[in-house]
Specification:
The structure holds two protein chains of two kinds. Chain A has helices at 14-24, 67-78, 87-94, 151-159, 209-226; strands at 2-7, 28-33, 44-47, 82-85, 101-103, 111-119, 135-142, 146-148, 163-167, 178-182, 188-191. Chain A is of the alpha/beta class. In chain A, strand 10 and strand 11 form a beta hairpin. The longest helix of chain A has 18 residues, at 209-226. Chain A is globular, with a radius of gyration of 16 Å. Chain A starts with a strand and ends with a helix. Chain B is α+β, with helices and mostly antiparallel strands. Chain B has a single domain (2-79), classed as Phosphoribosylformylglycinamidine synthase subunit PurS (Mth169, Chain: A, 2-Layer Sandwich), CATH 3.30.1280.10. In chain B, strands 2-1-3 form a three-stranded antiparallel sheet, with helices on one face. The chains are: A alpha/beta, B alpha+beta. Chain A binds chain B through residues 57-58, 61, 65, 93-94, 99-101, 103-108, 146, 148-150, 173, and chain B through 14-15, 17-18, 21, 64-65, 67, 69-70. Chain A: The active site is at residues 86, 194, 196. Chain A: It catalyses: L-glutamine + H2O = L-glutamate + NH4(+); N(2)-formyl-N(1)-(5-phospho-beta-D-ribosyl)glycinamide + L-glutamine + ATP + H2O = 2-formamido-N(1)-(5-O-phospho-beta-D-ribosyl)acetamidine + L-glutamate + ADP + phosphate + H(+).
Chain lengths: 227, 83
């Protein structure tokens, strides 16, 4: 399986993401610079965390206007699996590929620790190897991870089962304890916690590896179907 | 030269923790009667002509300067030519 890891100026979790796909999962991974124009030919696209463009204006706002994001939109429409983590989630929201926005944490602090997440939806290509309501340990590291959307959007997210991960103990004030959401089509997942930092026991948790393994299993199923 | 000032504020109902912190500090300093503090942004743009300027500013605000999910914007357009 070929993964693309998009690198923006200010990304700082790109190597972690690369390591997760290449070494922990054992698949192919390529770092793709944000000024490239095409993401065609990859089986999945990973948008890593960090501080793209120094978080100027709003987190992810500047990155969402870069050349690579035009191609990202096309791939999203084509059904290519796309995972955005932390700043990657912020970029997906700013690009309009997912609904809502992220605000500063309610206590105005940068939070960096493990959180317990609950897998609310295990019927996605990113979470199929988890049990429903499974509690997993995944680290967070963000200052602006307070998910916000209006009531109408929230009802829509609930109705369509688009809330994929919630926090057991909401650390940042997110609406409905939301930690990660998926688009209606089911191929774009955005989340604040970092599964790529929890892919080996030496890192403290392996709970994030199942997410990447789910992507791999589902890609293989699709591949076999289309073969 | 045309000066455009864009004011961006968080929508009503969107939590503004920075505003809340400032409100707390103002109370600490003994100021009373302050019901609410909201923090926003001011962005100044300078154009070299006024061609379709309102339309352009409106589009720029919507596309990049403000996030309509959480923010409102207003702007003023001033002709800076010395009279």
């Amino acid at each position: 399986m070929r993964f693309a890891v998009v690198v923006f100026p200010g990304s700082n979790c790109d190597r972690d993401m690369y390591h997760a796909a290449k070494d922990a999962l054992g698949e192919e991974a390529t770092l793709v610079w944000y000024q490239e124009e095409s993401l065609a030919g990859y089986d999945a696209i990973l948008i890593p965390g960090g501080f793209s463009y120094g978080d100027y204006l709003r987190c992810g706002a500047m990155a969402s206007t870069s050349p690579i994001v035009r191609s990202l939109r096309e791939e999203a429409e084509n059904g290519t699996p796309i995972l955005g983590v932390c700043n990657g989630f912020q970029i997906l929201l700013e690009a309009g590929l997912l609904p809502g926005a992220l605000l500063r944490n309610k206590q105005l602090k940068f939070l960096c620790h493990y959180e317990t997440l609950i897998v609310q939806n295990n019927q996605t290509q990113f979470t199929s190897l988890y049990e429903e309501n499974e509690a997993i340990q995944i680290p967070i590291a963000h200052g602006e991870g307070n998910y916000y959307c209006d009531d109408e959007t929230l009802q829509q997210l609930k109705r369509n089962n688009q809330i994929v991960f919630t926090y057991q103990n909401n650390p940042n004030g997110s609406v409905s304890d939301i930690a990660g959401i998926i688009n209606e089509q089911g191929n774009v997942l955005g989340m604040m916690p970092h599964p790529e930092r929890a892919t080996e026991s030496i890192l403290g948790s392996e709970d994030g590896l199942k997410l990447f393994k789910s992507m791999l299993v589902n890609w293989r199923d699709q591949y076999a179907k289309n073969a | 030269m045309i000066n455009v000032n864009v004011h961006i504020t968080l929508k009503e109902g969107v939590l503004d923790p920075e505003g809340k912190a400032i409100e707390g500090s103002l109370h600490n300093l003994g100021y009373e009667g302050i019901e609410d503090v909201r923090v926003g942004k001011l962005i100044n743009l300078t154009f070299d002509n006024s061609d379709r300027i309102e339309e352009k500013v409106e589009e720029i605000c919507r596309k990049l300067l403000a996030n309509p999910v959480i923010e409102n914007y207003t702007y003023t357009i001033e002709d800076g030519v010395a009279k």
